[in-house]
Write a structure and sequence with these properties.
By secondary structure, the protein is of the alpha+beta class. Strand 3 and strand 4 form a beta hairpin. The two termini are 38 Å apart.
């Protein structure tokens, strides 16, 4: 886990915030300050401002100032679903169900109905085959037409496309694993360099006194 900066509350940065930020600069060369204004809610914008330190000449002297940064909020699909459930945004009278839950419930009901209809057709065809029901040519033709509309899962073309998709998914997973490994190695190298620089600086400082 990397150290990016610190946070505080208020409207605008003060001299005290700049003093604290100057101390944070001893830990991180370019830290970020996040300022939250609890009383600054305006419309649909978050009352959060990011600042970075800049050096400017004020009255002939180099002075540290805090300049605002632009940022963008990014969320994955799983996070959006979680936020939707937390917000409990409902389009109907039942406030306990979210929009996502309603959508998934509708899909589940449709799939259950499809399964029940397929089972009914299959049971009817089996009963006609066993002689429990009299033959009904019109019904059998409709069942045959319905089965012909289904894709052939045993064809060579299906297997080729299926394995191609499996290989693509496995390749993307491997690339993600390699990227995470490279990131971990990069962080390890950065920490090693920081530690090596501190040890080297300590030896140089001791050389000045002895």
């Amino acid at each position: 886990m990397d150290f990016l900066g610190w946070y505080t509350t208020g409207d605008t940065p003060t001299e005290r915030d700049i003093a604290v930020h100057r101390q944070i600069c001893d830990i991180n060369e370019c830290p970020v300050m996040l300022m939250l204004n609890p009383a600054g809610i305006k419309g649909d914008q978050l009352p959060v401002v990011l600042y970075e330190s800049v050096i400017d000449v004020v009255n002939g002297r180099a002075t540290m100032l805090l300049a605002p940064l632009s940022y963008t909020l990014a969320a994955e699909e799983a996070e959006r679903i979680g936020v939707d459930h937390v917000a409990r945004v409902s389009s109907g009278e039942a406030a306990l169900n979210s929009l996502v839950a309603e959508h998934l419930t509708a899909q589940r009901s449709a799939i259950k109905m499809l399964v029940s209809r397929v089972r009914a057709v299959l049971a009817t065809v089996r009963a006609i085959r066993d002689g429990s029901l009299p033959p009904r040519p019109a019904l059998l033709r409709e069942a045959k037409a319905l089965s012909n509309r289904l894709p052939l899962l045993t064809s060579q073309q299906f297997r080729t496309h299926f394995y191609n998709q499996c290989n693509d998914v496995a390749l993307m997973t491997s690339l993600g694993t390699i990227t995470k490994g490279c990131n971990a190695i990069n962080q390890l190298v950065n920490r090693f360099n920081v530690l090596y620089d501190r040890q080297g600086m300590g030896r140089r400082m001791r050389g000045l006194f002895f």
